[in-house]
Design a protein that fits this description.
The complex is a heterodimer of chains A (465) and B (428). With 465 residues, chain A is of the alpha/beta class. Helices cover 43% and strands 12% of the residues of chain A. In chain A, strand 3, helix 7 and strand 4 form a beta-alpha-beta unit. In chain A, helix 3 packs across helix 12. Chain B has 428 residues and is α/β, with parallel strands linked by helices. Chain B folds into two domains: 112 residues, Aspartate Aminotransferase, domain 1 (Alpha-Beta Complex), CATH 3.90.1150.10; 235 residues, Type I PLP-dependent aspartate aminotransferase-like (Major domain) (Aspartate Aminotransferase, domain 2), CATH 3.40.640.10. Chain B is built from 17 helices and 13 strands. In chain B, the strands form four sheets. In chain B, strands 2-10-9-8-7-3-4 form a seven-stranded mixed sheet. In chain B, helix 7 links the parallel strand 3 and strand 4. Chain B is globular, with a radius of gyration of 25 Å. Classes of the chains: A alpha/beta (465), B alpha/beta (428). At the A-B interface, helix 1, helix 3, helix 6, helix 7 and helix 9 of A face helix 1, helix 6, helix 7, helix 12 and helix 13 of B.
Chain lengths: 465, 428
């Protein structure tokens, strides 16, 4: 006995809405950083189509989600989708920040392979749920990695660390905690920043504001603007800081500048929230890349830090990360941890075990840790080499403009300074895939493809685009 | 608290090497007002169990399967799958919606291998973080696209269901389910509640092996529930965390869902591989929503992805690979089916053993519900006070609602358990 699942007219109207692209029902935006997600309501319904009342169900019993419009592609992940569809043999994917070898292949680190084998054969490995806060050893080792082996905050048991789903998950759990327990609900994010940052904070219930960061004129840091904007922030506001290798610009403050920032923030009682997605990838040194974070911890103050092992251990799809909250006292850290559990439990109960086990296996073993630092430096060095090659290729072509930012910027990405029209041109004519803000992932380049990219940039800059 | 200007000015001229303390130690913590959170009622049990030093201790708290030696189990099919996976795959990001191969195999389990809905691509489905993650994605989706709706939740239910829909900001109502007197289903009241709810209400249903009671509607009762849902145009959201674990046969355990599908309901479904593949810690599951047509399914899936992106970007790859490897290989899939049956049969055997032990001890109380109930859990009917006595006097750990995880019962401890239960219940 089948339920009549909808009149012909209703099915046609449902299809028609999708084809016409009824924007009244579009709940999401790609570019806006501050639009909160508004609940779908049938305001302003299109006269041409039959609007089902969302909760009525209706006599015909059609889907209660029939009004749902197709969401736009994620701007970053959508680049790879488009790249995959392109049949051209010269296509280059400089979109998502995933490391590629000189041969253009993804890389699984040797230490990771070894760790996996060890786990496979380990009779004592955990076979059930992790605790809500994740793998305890992983948490301890992650805290040491970012705060330093001898960090007083760790020794004083003032740090709570919970395993989360990579950087995104760590940011989200931290944001939810702040929205629930922190008195200030405004977070300042740098302009520009990773496209997913505003979404994460907004959905958690924080209000997103920006502070000046990138200076298009110098393709460097707008330090004055940064200091002015943070000075103007209300006391207690949260400030998102990229620990190193700023995404998407590759522009990092110097240590001197970090010290200034620290003093300013502490004097205004601004709460630091570090996003550390590239520790080890920026300079090749894990300790050097963690200096900004350690600067803040050393003054005894509080902060949040989100860590990701996606890039520096190549564990992208395993979703391994950690959120640490450095607190004033041990007692506070204990209570904070208990509240973090209440955020996590209704989201996914407990985190995935595989990736964290790999990380713990590597970090706890001196020899494997050493092996990791070598492989990490090799990845960082290859990227630096790509920067050098691209810079030289543009110089060799006499491409107009100052391209020194390519070698000054740090980490996986270069903010080329190309505009959306130029980017579109490069995609169409040269099959170069990158995000429309002009960001290129250096990790996607090889000695073989650098000339092609240089040609594309040259054409985009000199042509009437 | 402002710092003195002199202190600040003095710091500016410092070199890079020195870190200048600005007297932050005198500032109080931002988190002074944070209260210690209550322990999770289920996961807190295992914590307490682990802390107990007694050699007699028994953990019948959390629903994780144990073999007859009380040891956790890694299924042979999983071991083999992991051997094949290790070293062969890169660890690149999955798409936001997860592994397509994984989703394809998973939908077959719930909707049937030859499901027309799968052929017609009418199911919007995304890989989720086990059952919790699937329920949470649906709750967030429900909030966003049916903002005026509520969720009807059975009494009792898995405690985390309440947390999930609460954090998704979907108001909750309850419907009658468990009948304490008979320790069975309160079918009449359930149907009343279905009829009295406003048309088009959202209901959470446990597809099989209800947690925590182990009480499932019969096939006839499911048909009646489905019929009443049709009349009222309710939305049925199935949480299926124990497919294969209830009867030992995954097809049989999906019967309720198939009845609803046959009746034309456009259901939602959360699936988990935590128990039936022993993949607890991998956090591997699936959320699916049956739509009217392919276009709608594409739209719905795209919106589910938008909810996943600011939560974790994309789901973990390992568990998805394990499941796809097993279900995609006929030999491994058969092995899995056998292993699931072994687990289910052992639990059924323990139910019989526990009931018989209690009856042999001369307990005058009725214990048929132990063998009537199905799946991993037995709702014993014990009070919180009796449970507390079990813990303090006998070092037996379970949730205070009297739920016994039968997976924690073994031939080695069933006698001890029966004796303890008899002791705390005989005076009452």
């Amino acid at each position: 006995m089948r339920l009549n699942d909808g009149s012909v007219a209703r099915r046609l109207s449902t299809l028609g809405k999708h084809l016409v692209g009824d924007h009244y029902y579009d709940c999401t935006t790609t570019n806006s950083s501050s639009d909160p997600i508004t609940p779908m309501a049938s305001q302003g319904a299109d006269d041409r189509t039959i609007s089902p009342s969302p909760t009525s169900g209706g006599i015909t019993g059609g889907s209660v989600f029939g009004h749902v419009a197709q969401a736009p592609e994620d701007p970053i992940l959508g680049v790879t989708v488009a790249y995959n569809k392109d049949p051209s043999p010269v296509k280059v994917n400089l979109g998502v920040g995933a490391y590629r070898t000189e041969e253009g292949k993804p890389l699984v680190l040797n230490v990771v392979r070894r760790a996996e084998q060890l786990l496979l054969n380990d009779p004592n490995r955990i076979k059930e749920y992790l605790p809500i806060t994740g793998l305890a050893e992983f948490n301890k080792l992650s805290a040491k990695l970012i705060f330093g082996q001898d960090s007083p905050a760790i020794q004083e048991n003032r740090v709570t660390t919970v395993q989360c789903l990579s950087g995104t998950g760590s940011l989200r759990v931290g944001a939810e905690f702040l929205a629930k327990h922190y008195h200030e609900h405004t977070i300042y994010i740098p302009l520009p920043t990773w496209g997913n940052h505003p979404k994460v904070f907004t959905i958690a219930g924080l209000t997103v504001k920006t502070y000046r960061y990138y200076d298009p004129a110098t393709r460097g840091l707008n330090f004055q603007g940064l200091l002015e904007d943070l000075s103007a922030a209300p006391s207690g506001a949260i400030v998102l800081l990229h620990a190193c290798a700023h995404n998407p610009t590759g522009v990092d403050p110097t240590l001197d500048q970090w010290e200034h920032i620290r003093q300013l923030m502490r004097s205004k009682g601004l709460l630091p929230f570090f996003d550390s997605a590239y520790q080890g990838f920026a300079s090749g040194s894990l300790d050097a890349d963690a200096q900004p974070v350690r600067l803040f911890v050393a003054d005894g103050g509080e902060l949040l830090a989100a860590q990701s092992y996606a890039k520096n251990m190549g564990l992208y799809g395993e979703r391994v990360g950690a959120l640490s909250i450095v607190c004033k006292t041990r007692d506070v850290a204990v209570r904070v941890e208990s509240q973090l559990k209440l955020v996590i439990r209704p989201m996914y109960s407990n985190p995935p075990i595989h990736g964290a086990s790999i990380v713990a296996t590597i970090l706890r073993d001196r020899e494997m840790y050493g092996g990791w630092t070598i492989e990490l430096k090799a990845m960082a060095d290859r990227i630096i080499s790509m920067r050098t090659q691209l810079h030289e290729a543009l110089l060799a072509r006499g491409t107009p403009g100052d391209w020194s930012h390519i070698i000054k910027q740090i980490g996986m990405f270069t903010f080329t300074g190309l505009n959306t029209d130029q980017v579109a041109f490069m995609t169409k004519e040269y099959h170069i895939y990158m995000t429309s803000d002009g960001r290129i992932s250096m990790a996607g380049l090889s000695s073989r493809t650098v000339p092609h990219l240089a040609d594309a940039i040259h054409a985009a800059v000199t042509g009437a685009v | 608290m402002a710092l003195s200007g002199a202190l600040f000015r003095g710091a500016v001229g410092r070199g890079v090497g020195a870190v200048f303390l600005l007297g932050n130690r005198s500032m109080s913590s931002w988190w002074s007002n944070v209260e210690p959170a209550a322990k999770d009622p289920i996961l807190g049990v295992t914590e307490a169990f682990l802390a107990d030093q007694s050699p007699d201790k028994v953990n019948v708290g959390v629903g994780a399967y144990r073999d007859d030696n009380g040891k956790p189990v890694v299924l042979e099919c999983v071991r083999e799958a992991e051997r094949r996976i290790a070293g062969n795959q890169n660890m690149e990001y999955l798409p936001m919606g997860g592994s397509l191969k994984f989703i394809e195999e998973t939908l077959k389990l719930a909707y049937g291998g030859n499901s027309e809905f799968i052929k017609d691509r009418r199911i919007a489905a995304v890989q989720a973080l086990s059952g919790t993650g699937a329920c949470r994605l649906f709750a967030d989706f429900q909030r966003r696209f049916q903002p005026d709706s509520q969720i009807y939740i059975p009494v009792p239910t898995w405690s985390n269901h309440h947390n999930i829909w609460r954090d998704a900001q979907v108001p909750q109502r309850t419907f009658h389910y468990y009948h304490p007197e008979s320790k069975g289903l309160d079918f009449a009241s359930l149907i009343d509640d279905v009829k009295n709810a406003p048309n088009g209400s959202f209901f959470l249903l446990h597809a099989c092996a209800h947690n925590p009671t182990g009480v499932d509607p019969s096939e006839e009762q499911w048909k009646e529930i489905s019929y009443q849902f049709k009349v009222k145009n309710h939305f049925a959201f199935f949480d299926m965390a124990y497919q294969g674990f209830a009867s030992g046969d995954p097809e049989k355990d999906a019967k309720a869902i198939r009845i609803f599908l046959d009746d034309g309901h456009l259901i939602g479904c959360a699936q988990s591989y935590a128990k039936n593949m022993g993949l607890y810690g991998q956090r591997i599951g699936c959320l699916s929503i049956l739509c009217e047509d392919e276009l709608q399914a594409v739209a719905v899936k795209s919106q589910l992805q938008q909810i996943a992106r600011p939560m974790y970007s994309n789901p973990p790859v390992h568990g998805a690979l394990v499941v796809s490897t097993i279900l995609g290989d006929p030999e491994l899939k058969n092995l899995w089916l056998q292993e699931v049956k072994v687990m289910a049969d052992r639990i059924i055997g323990m139910r019989t053993a526990l009931r018989e032990s209690l009856e042999k001890l001369g307990s005058t109380l009725p214990w048929e519900h132990i063998t009537n109930q199905i799946g991993m859990f037995c709702f014993s009917g014990m009070t919180p006070q009796q449970v507390d006595r079990l813990t303090s006097e006998f070092h037996i750990y379970m949730t205070r609602n009297g739920r016994i995880s039968m997976a924690g019962v073994t031939t080695g401890n069933v006698g001890y358990l029966a004796n303890a239960i008899h002791e705390v219940t005989k005076s009452g």
